[in-house]
Amino acid sequence: MVDITDWSATAGSNADVDGVNVAEGCDPGDVNNAMRAIMAGVAALRDNIGGANVSAGTADVQTLTTGLSLAAYQQGVLIAFEAGAGLTNTGACTLNIDGIGAKSVKTLAGADPVAGVITAGGIYIVAYESGADVLLLLTPAVSATTLGLGTGDSPQLTAVNIGHATDTTLARVSAGVVSIEGVTISTASNTLTLTNKTLTDPQMVGTIKEDCYVITDGAAFAIDPRNGSVQRVTLGASRTPTAANWADGDAVTLKIADGMAYAITWTTVSVTWIGGSAPALAATGWTWVELWRENSTIYGKHAGDSA
After folding, report:
1. What is the DSSP letter of 259?
2. Long-range contacts formed by 152-160: CB under 8 A, 24+ apart
3. Are 29 and 21 in contact (CB under 8 A)?
4. Distance of alpha carbon 69 from alpha carbon 263, whole angstroms
5. Nearby residues of 258 by Cβ (< 8 Å), 6 or more positions away
6. Less CB within 10 Å around the terminal CB: N or C of the chain?
């Protein structure tokens, strides 16, 4: 007996329809029986690509009767079915079609489906892949469980990678952390880490806080605007600092301590001082110095002293 999945796309190769002889010179009485067999085969195929058949068994060991009387799995065969009542998978699962053998159901990536990908009452399409001997799930469920929607239906993607043809990951969502080419957003610690990234016209809302950058005294230190607009320097000796990464529009406020014992020589920074000379450092407390760059020149001003 030849079922619809065994019919050939070459007309002359088809000599049997569900046991009815349709070869050249067949009995005229077989013609009507052959037509009925064809109609039955097409109806069975319709039901199987339309999801009319309902699976049975258990959540992770499901069975399916197609009406096609399949004798073996064939590469690329497509079957649509409705998951039976109570048959929502809990993880790795199998599907046995027409009793010809249970096959593992896999995602298109070749992985076991996570819990809830097959949901009772949902309609799914699987395709047999002979190389791996598995049934590939072409239409996984989209639900609150698989999207990870939580309280208030807020999207909480739990495992997503976005890449391109060369398989370079541009974005990753995993374990509550979103990473986008050097940008990391941690939902657990409420931190955002930018690595060599530029924010164009950002809008800051709420309370804005900038940490004071602390310069550890050494043989020399650099004044770098990229370290922050407020920088604290505690001298351990008289120093001659350098300027690093300055561009027009940059500005830094320095909070300098220990001026009684040590001094700063500004020649390497090449500061043009408002008032004509560098400020004398306070004997106690802090000396505040403002530096900014305009038209390729770094200007400086004594902003005052504090305890």
Report:
1. T
2. none
3. no
4. 94
5. 234, 235, 236, 281
6. C
Grouping H, G, I as helix, E, B as strand and the rest as coil, residue 49 is: helix
* Closest residue by Cα to residue 225 from 235, 213, 209: 213
Tokens of 304: 């005052």
List average pLDDT for each run of 10 residues in the chain, which is 307 residues long.
Answer: 63 73 77 76 69 91 86 86 94 94 93 92 92 90 46 49 50 58 61 76 80 81 93 91 95 89 91 94 93 96 93
Q: How far apart are CA 265 and CA 237, in angstroms?
A: 11
Check residue 52 and give left, alpha or beta (phi > 0: left; psi -120 to 50: alpha): alpha
- Nearest-angstrom CA–CA distance, 19 and 37: 9
Question: 201 is written with which tokens?
Answer: 């016209």
Cα separation, 190 vs 269, whole angstroms: 38
DSSP state of 210: -
CA 66 – CA 279 distance, rounded (Å): 90
In degrees rounded to 5, what are phi and psi of residue 145?
-70, -50
